[in-house]
């Protein structure tokens, strides 16, 4: 769909509704075929102005903080699937009130809050609240340690040697999350490791949450294998299966629209400074790290073509993304469009240096642009004291 950029401020995250619906239609077809529940993970996509669209296809969402839980309640109308590495005493009552599922990261966390869960259930017999334990199958194919929950010393999940032969009373489910934008072949090997260590406990569970990282909307992903894997484990252990992808839902559904503010020579290297920041507005590109695609540009320098090192507008020396080649020289005022900037980008933005956050908008299916939010001084000030 052709976007009329004359209507769009710079910088701006632009979600394309048609692309989001295309992803959601595919995801819905998977959950229908596999007989599982696929829910939205807010840590990857918290654009609540788009939640009415997501709700047309998905029946749940998962949170990792009380604020995310509230966003799910307020803008999706769902009770949350909630997991936190550790719960705060002063928040736990509200989390129980607002959640349908609560996963505990350790046995000590479960033992700490078990009495409160039992008392809450007794006082609210009509409220459905199911508890689970996160496990560490000690198998992951995630290459970046920052995103690998199975590295030695990981604080995420319980290893098999720490669990008894029977699930603790009050624990209904098992949760694992060891994938990160992986394929169904990786899931297949992960499930083999999970069954080897936790198969006896799976027979006792009512549900299995396979976490996120299932990049089923990526071109080439083996959907049929995913459906078969989910269906097989569901039938084998007679339990409900839940998946909570983060990236897959908003994968390639939108852009970050930016403008060239200055072009300069730096010791023989041409540099273009943009009205955005890689460190503040795209931190995931530096953490993962990965080099985002730019529409109409070459990802790597091409001999003979105008080549620029793209930098952000903060004073951080490392606020740059590397070198790209273009078919013609860049000039002040030129527009730079970063592809696939909706998932794991907006959720991580900061106002470092007092730099304004990019605006947020939706390019609707009727080919109209809707500006959802713009930011200014108040947004910066409210994060400080």
Automatic annotation (TrEMBL):
GO MF term list: diaminopimelate decarboxylase activity
PANTHER family: CARBOXYNORSPERMIDINE_CARBOXYSPERMIDINE DECARBOXYLASE, DIAMINOPIMELATE DECARBOXYLASE
GO biological process: lysine biosynthetic process via diaminopimelate; nor-spermidine biosynthetic process; spermidine biosynthetic process
Family under the similarity heading: Belongs to the Orn/Lys/Arg decarboxylase class-II family. NspC subfamily.
Entry-linked InterPro entries: Ala_racemase/Decarboxylase_C, De-COase2_C, Nsp_de-COase, PLP-binding_barrel
Protein known as: Carboxynorspermidine/carboxyspermidine decarboxylase
UniProt catalytic activity: carboxyspermidine + H(+) = spermidine + CO2; carboxynorspermidine + H(+) = norspermidine + CO2
Domain of life: Bacteria
Pfam families recorded: Orn_DAP_Arg_deC
Annotated ranges, domain Orn/DAP/Arg decarboxylase 2 C-terminal: 252-341
Stored SUPFAM superfamilies: Alanine racemase C-terminal domain-like, PLP-binding barrel
Co-factor(s): pyridoxal 5'-phosphate
Organism field: Dyadobacter soli
Keywords: Decarboxylase, Lyase, Pyridoxal phosphate, Spermidine biosynthesis
